[in-house]
Design brief:
three-stranded antiparallel β-sheet, 3 strands, alpha+beta, 20% strand
Length: 185
């Protein structure tokens, strides 16, 4: 489970202008149109081509849980790509992104100015350059640990150092015991 990657995806999905198909047959028909055939959908979902055809014809309506999760994930990953790109572009150039997190956060700094990590609930608006770094890393296939590190660096800059207005230099901000992470565009 990718907490930061899923959080970024959820933030982008909230900008959709129409809801994605919800029923399994509708989702399957959408994927068949997107991938231009039942064979490609069957290979992607690791099921038989005949099963895909039966979903398309409404002969099967309820998939087993693992197939339902794969189907939902694939539809959401392909749904409204232009709206998704526009939302990411806006966040990366003008709007920025808001991170709401409840996690154990702490930092190390030069001797005598350390803050032990403790549970903090932060809601911080990150400027566009930090949103751009997060989205670029996600597009490049960064794992959750890398996205977490980018978010920690952004919080270091914006929250702990107040955009450079606070004296002192922090060496590292780190997340541990993450209870909640949510992003808003």
């Amino acid at each position: 489970m990718s907490v930061f990657g899923d959080g970024l995806d959820a933030a982008v999905q909230r900008s959709f202008t129409r809801p994605a198909p919800k029923s399994a047959p509708a989702q399957m028909r959408y994927l068949v149109r997107q991938l231009k055939g039942t064979r490609a959908v069957a290979q992607m979902l690791r099921i038989s081509q005949r099963t895909v055809e039966r979903y398309v014809k409404d002969q099967i309506k309820k998939p087993r849980p693992d197939l339902a999760a794969r189907l939902d994930r694939e539809v959401k990953n392909r749904w409204q790509p232009q709206v998704r790109a526009r939302a990411r572009q806006k966040a990366a150039t003008t709007g920025g992104i808001v991170i709401d997190t409840r996690a154990r956060l702490g930092y190390t700094a030069p001797i005598g100015s350390t803050d032990e990590s403790r549970i903090r609930h932060l809601t911080v608006a990150l400027p566009p350059q930090h949103a751009a770094r997060l989205f670029d890393a996600q597009q490049a296939g960064a794992d959750d640990q890398q996205l977490q590190q980018i978010a920690a660096e952004a919080l270091k800059d914006v929250y702990f150092q107040d955009g450079g207005r606070r004296a002192g230099s922090l060496e590292e901000v780190r997340f541990t015991d993450i209870e909640h992470v949510q992003f808003e565009l």
